[in-house]
Request: fold
Amino acid sequence: MEMPISVRLDKKTETLLEETAKVLRANKTQVIKRSLSDYCSHILMEKRRRPYDLIEDLLGKRGSGIGDLSIRSEEILRKTFRRKG
Reply:
């Protein structure tokens, strides 16, 4: 069962909606449903991410080959962050 909803749009958003519907050859309801679903899914995925997920690509899966990694870890991590930034 679908839930009816009413939304007031400013002129800019209304125009954007109409142009998007025209390009997709869809009606405004279809565009709103798809946009809302995509937006909410994106937000929920971002909120569910763990801190580890944010730096996973910075962490090695196997040995690093760096013999003094435990001693110089802060320096090495800072260099890695600078390269990523």
Remarks:
- The chain has a mean pLDDT of 86.
- Residues 8-48 form one domain.
- The two ends are 47 Å apart (CA to CA).
